[in-house]
Design a protein that fits this description.
Elements lengths: L3 H16 L4 H8 L3 H9 L6 H11 L3 H22 L6
């Protein structure tokens, strides 16, 4: 099931991969994964585990802490958006 986070993470992953000018196959090989899994992540059809994130950071040639910081910022942005979308409670 697609969630706001998985879709946004997929867009982030695809952007980082394209920035490095590497294919899904090359990223998968470097990350110790399968190309089809990278495809599903980029589509927002799957949410990665911490182990997968570590592999993706390696495959993207970035420190894990940098990828984690990007994900944290993404999560905070989504949380802020969700808070704005909630109806205000009236007392």
């Amino acid at each position: 099931m697609k969630t706001g986070f998985s879709v946004q993470f997929g867009m982030l992953l695809k952007s980082l991969r394209k920035e490095r000018k590497i294919s899904q196959q090359k990223l998968a090989e470097s990350a110790g994964s399968e190309r089809s899994y990278i495809y599903y992540l980029e589509r927002g059809d799957s949410t990665p585990t911490i182990g997968v994130l570590i592999g993706l950071a390696h495959g993207l040639g970035r420190p894990f802490r940098e990828l984690a910081a990007l994900i944290e910022a993404l999560s905070e942005t989504l949380t802020d958006i969700q808070k704005k979308d909630l109806p205000e409670k009236t007392g």
